[in-house]
Write a structure and sequence with these properties.
This protein is an alpha+beta fold. The protein contains three helices and six strands, in the order E-H-E-E-H-E-H-E-E. It has a six-stranded mixed β-sheet with strand order 1-6-5-4-2-3, with helices on both faces. A hairpin with a 5-residue loop joins strand 5 and strand 6. The radius of gyration is 18 Å and the shape is globular. The structure holds tetrahydrodeoxyuridine.
């Protein structure tokens, strides 16, 4: 038995002004996209904006339904819009933000687990990382270099029959990395 520590790095910007103009603009677009949300049930509106490789910016909001399980996150309606715009689109960066009608304080918005899986699928297809810019109601912005960082030990298409076997699934169990044997991982 040995333990292994998995980690990823994020960048935290205390304010928008520390970002470059392109990232600032994308966050502004995500903020504006809050108005595209249809969130009459949760009253939690999410806006997401994507910068594509060709410079196009597309944005969308969450879309709810009286049948709650049919609610779609902003990231899902956004990826649908991108696919409709160009099925081969390459996404460089996605900015995500939100607003709760009760005006509660929101830390930088974290994509839900399902959206992490959806974004990972895009990243694997396009074979290049999608950066994320996460913003809440505060000034702070969190930057994540790649969607796969948000979903360690992910399930992906490479486990499935008929998919290319040349690449191993991401589960980083056999690679050379720091061995944390003896560390307090909480794993018995
Ligand atoms: N929501 C998103 O749009 N993105 C996320 O990553 C988290 C949650 C939406 C779904 C639902 O309409 C509302 O927020 C409350 O869960």
């Amino acid at each position: 038995m040995h333990s292994k520590r998995l980690h990823f790095d994020i960048k935290i910007f205390d304010s928008n002004t520390e970002l470059n103009a392109s990232d600032r603009k994308l966050i502004r677009e995500a903020k504006d996209a809050i108005l595209k949300a249809y969130a009459i049930y949760s009253q939690f509106m999410v806006g997401a904006a994507a910068l594509l490789e060709d410079g196009t910016i597309l944005s969308s909001g969450n879309q709810e339904n009286a049948s709650y399980p049919l609610c779609l996150c902003a990231e899902q309606t956004l990826t649908g819009a991108i696919r409709s715009h160009d099925p081969n689109a390459v996404i460089k960066t996605i900015a995500i933000t939100g607003f709760s009608l009760d005006e509660r304080y929101l830390p930088p918005l974290a994509p839900c687990g399902g959206c992490r899986q959806i974004l990972l699928e895009w990243e694997l297809r396009q074979e290049s990382p999608i950066r994320l810019l996460l913003k809440g109601t505060e000034d702070r912005v969190v930057m994540i270099g790649s969607c796969k960082d948000l979903l360690p030990l992910a399930f992906d298409g490479r486990y499935l029959p008929g998919q290319p076997l040349s690449e191993e699934p991401e589960m980083p169990l056999d690679d050379e990395g720091p061995d944390d044997s003896g560390g307090d991982s909480g794993i018995e």
